[in-house]
Amino acid sequence: MAVPFHDVNEIRADFSAAMSAMYRAEVPAYGQLINIVSEVNDAVLSSDTAAMLNMKPEEDVLRIAQERHGAIRLGTPQELAMMARVFAVMGMYPVGYYDLSVASVPIHSTAFRPIARADLAANPFRVFTSLLRLELIEDDTLREKAAVVLDERQIFTEKAVELIEKAELQGGLDKGDADQFVVEVLEAFRWHSDACVDADTFGALIKAHRLIADVVSFKGPHINHLTPRVLDIDAAQDAMICQNLPAKAVVEGPPRRKCPILLRQTSFKALDEKVSFPERDGRLSEGKHTARFGEIEQRGAALTPKGRALYDHLLATVRETITPAADGSNTKDYVAHLAETFAKFPDTWREIHDQELAYFKYNIADASSVFASGMSINVLLDLGVLSISPIIYEDFLPVSAAGIFQSNLGDDAQENKQAASSQDQFEAALGFKVANEFALYEAIQSESLSRCLGHLEAVRSAD
Question: Domain 8-302+394-432 class?
Answer without folding.
Answer: alpha beta
